[in-house]
Amino acid sequence: MQSIYSESFDQKSSEKALDRTHRKKINFNIGKYNAVVPKGKMQFNDIEKVRSLAKNKKWEAVEHLDLYLTQFEEQITKRGAKVFWAEDSEQALDFIGSICKKKECKTLVKSKSMVTEEIHLNTYLESIGVESVETDLGEYIQQLDGEAPYHIVTPAMHKSKEDVAKLFAEKLGTDMNMTPEEMTLVARKNLREKYVQAEIGVTGANFILSDIGGIALTENEGNARLSAAFPKTHIVIVGIEKVIPSVTDLGLFWPLLSTYGTGQQVTVYNSIISGPKQSDEADGPEEMYVILLDNGRTNLLANAKSREALYCIRCGACLNACPIYKNIGGHAYETTYSGPIGSVITPHLRGMHDYKHLSFASSLCGNCTAVCPVKINLHELLLENRRESVVAGESSFSEEFAWKIWKQASLNRMLMNQGNATIKNWVVNKIFKGWAKQRVPLQFPSKTFNQLWKEKHKQ
Fold it and tell me: In this predicted structure, what is the pLDDT of residue 442?
């Protein structure tokens, strides 16, 4: 039985695929990305060797995840930070809620974090009466518009500057003819007031540094630094897969993430935070909490074939390369993580029954695998998800019956040669309606290859 998520995906993806205005905006923005990434890659003498090294480092981290996370906890708690292990989003939210209550928090500032989107932190904070303010410009725009992020790296990729100007005019009362630079200044003015008002600052983490007990942040606006430094309490929410063995590995991962994420050699702001303000320091938060979130990640960890999806460094390159994403956009997926990587991990994080359809929404062209900086075999993992869904009994009776008939016919040369193309087209496109529903109808040739071969060689 088709899930409600699958039905919604079919509807929304069909609508977006025919929306030429939407496609024009996406192609324009991805085109700008494609123009700068080759320049970023020029900093590497041997990009393939770098990618292989990065994959090996992530393999090491994931294969020994328990040891590296334990080491991280041991090191960061020595400097006064508190580590909380959350099995799911409910535990993470309850813990954050208890901190907000303890600190009598009224305003919370939040830097860009996909994990906080994953646990729906803003919705939860609103329910307990805490104002949560997105401080990343793209996330701020999306929050004003009441939308979820559209892209892992570029949350408002689907909006033109005219769209943003109209949104600012409606929500903030600004001039409709403002330039992007002028709108940025308005956002900066509004957000800087929030930094000094907030009792709590929330960030994610691009990497967990096991050996020194720190978290690494990479950004272009400085909002993560401000969110971590101004409020008296700093909360970090990070998925357990973000760990890397050593701080020295950042020399590999920071440039790689920057190049594949935005085409830069390195992002503007790169920070390492290893605890709250120390006794001999003048600045920084008085308390720091790190929430290590599982939320289904150990399901992937336990799967020997799909485990490598945990290597992902969230650069978004696979989204920009995917022909499906470029046609239907990020919101059609209705998941936190869209595109190829989202299609791989979401069925494991949120359930195969509800989200198996995402693994079938792929051309299997392999472009996602080709551009992945840590060489995750994404298109093969999409196929593995399809196999697992069938093994788990998630295919319908009609689908199984159709493939059995197809198999029997394919294994029998006489059956394949019988019947003309018109009859075959009718059987496939009219009786087995599932194929033509989302695809161009199959058109069989008038003669099979076997028949043509025999005629040519007169056998």
Answer: 81
Q: Given this model, what pLDDT does residue 142 score?
A: 97
The whole-number pLDDT of residue 459 equals: 58
Domain spans in the chain, listed from the N-terminal domain onward? 1-38+309-395, 43-295, 401-457
Name the stretches of the chain with pLDDT < 70: 1, 419, 432-435, 459
Looking at CATH, the fold of the domain delimited by 43-295 is given as: Rossmann fold (3.40.50)
Predicted pLDDT at 446: 83
pLDDT of residue 379: 97
pTM (global) more than 0.90: yes
pLDDT of residue 70: 98
For the chain, give the secondary structure using H, E and C: CCCHHHHHHHHHHHHHHCCHHHHHHHHHHHHHHHHHHHHHHCCCCCHHHHHHHHHHHHHHHHHCHHHHHHHHHHHHHCCCCEEEEECCHHHHHHHHHHHHHHCCCCEEEECCCHHHHHCCHHHHHHHCCCEEEECCHHHHHHHHHCCCCCCCCCCCCCCCHHHHHHHHHHHHCCCCCCCHHHHHHHHHHHHHHHHHHCCEEEECCCEEECCCCEEEEEECCCHHHHHHHCCCEEEEEEEHHHEECCHHHHHHHHHHHHHHHHCCCCCCEEEEECCCCCCCCCCCCCEEEEEEECCCHHHHHCCCCCHHHHHCCCCCHHHHHCHHHHHHCCHHHCCCCCHHHHHHHHHHHHCHHHHCHHHHCCCCCCHHHHHCCCCCCHHHHHHHHHHHHHHCCCCCHHHHHHHHHHHHHHCCHHHHHCCCHHHHHHHHHHHCHHHHHCCCCCCCCCCCHHHHHHHHHCC
